UniProtKB/TrEMBL annotation:
Residues 2-145 form the NADPH-dependent FMN reductase-like domain. This is NAD(P)H-dependent oxidoreductase. One of its GO terms (molecular function) is oxidoreductase activity. The lineage of its organism: Bacteria, Bacillati, Actinomycetota, Actinomycetes, Mycobacteriales. Gene3D superfamilies: 3.40.50.360.
Length: 189
């Protein structure tokens, strides 16, 4: 069964990405089509990337980078929660991605985004970053608005429509994840 990581993308206090991740996992686990786990970026405590060699060489000197590499190697696909910041992705996610490269090759990514414009620009920036890391991605993200999927107090309250789009995105993510399995096997052979 494929292993899918649901990745929070911000470490700031008061963030909603962990609540969004919990919702995704709750919806996804009932499907029974993959193992879904949450990776909470704020728990990683990754320093600003400063390894001596480029990530493409996979010769990490820092224990924390080696641990991060082992974590990502375990997964076949990813759901990234793209919360919009100025209008891009949060620095914590960008930094975490910069630590690695081969660990993401030939794996699939899906997106659940939110922001005043549904996080559309954050997803586009993330797509470009992941494409450079040789990842495939789903076509349609689950774009949630601060005006419809969050209450006036800022708490996360996804609409039924967002739930339906989530299941469609997960279907496409798993199709791509399974299709890329053969490519990963060829590289490791």
């Amino acid at each position: 069964m494929p292993k899918i990581a649901i990745v929070t993308t911000t470490a700031r206090r008061g963030r909603q990405s962990l609540n969004v991740a919990r919702w995704i996992r709750q919806e996804a686990v009932g499907r029974g089509d993959a193992d879904y786990e949450i990776i909470n970026i704020s728990e990683l405590e990754l320093p600003v990337w400063d390894e001596a060699t480029p990530p493409a060489m996979k010769r990490y000197g820092e224990k924390i980078t080696k641990r991060w590499s082992t974590t990502i190697d375990r997964y076949d696909g990813f759901v990234f929660i793209a919360s919009e910041r100025h209008p891009s992705i949060p620095g914590a996610l960008k930094n975490a991605l910069h630590h690695l490269s081969p660990e993401f090759h030939d794996k699939a990514a899906g997106f659940v985004s939110y922001g005043s414009s549904g996080g559309a620009e954050a997803v586009e920036h993330l797509r470009a970053t992941l494409a450079g890391m040789q990842m495939a991605h789903v076509h349609e993200p689950v774009a949630m608005s601060l005006f419809t999927d969050f209450r006036n107090d800022g708490d996360f309250a996804p609409t039924r429509s967002s739930g339906n789009r989530l299941h469609g995105m997960l279907d496409e993510l798993l199709t791509r994840t399974r299709a890329l399995e053969g490519a990963r096997e060829k590289v490791s052979a």
